[in-house]
Description:
three-stranded antiparallel beta sheet, mainly alpha, disordered C terminus
Amino acid sequence: MRTRDPFGTALGSLRAALDQGIEPGRRLPIADIATALRLSASPVREALSRLCGEGLIEDRRGLGYFTRSAPQEDIVGLLHLEEMHVRLAAGDQGDPVPGGANDEDVEAWVHALMETCTNQPLAESYDRVRRRLDPMRRLHGPVDPASAPPSEDGLKAYYDRWRSCAAVLSARLRRMESAQPEYTTNRV
């Protein structure tokens, strides 16, 4: 059975793959994606172009499409932006910021806070930032609590620990070997 909306299929599949956290800097080969989705290359190319226009992936002329790389400045900026989203949501809901909590407690509090956030644009913006940071967090793993100075503000301490790891994380992403494509390899 033919798909009625090949562009929508390609776009939805690529968004889902990005949401699941394809690591930064990974190549997105058009032919392999088209083969895996059983589509022609045109709707896949259009979907990649749309995602590129939205800033979710990058087009490297002559090389193809790639997931966005993550320089140290971007990681620090995204962490700062995510922290501001959380503080705004806490202020809107009158929810006090946890003090001196461990990372698991802070993450659980943030998750619960953002799940109940009534400010839809704020929640959607937070989700976009979080999706960009998730692959990096999974790659790095837990942060050592001693890596940042202690603070009475548990949220600030949590984000300071992640910001202190940004240089190491960025360098690790640059050295990371390219993994096998998310989609099947096109054999000609």
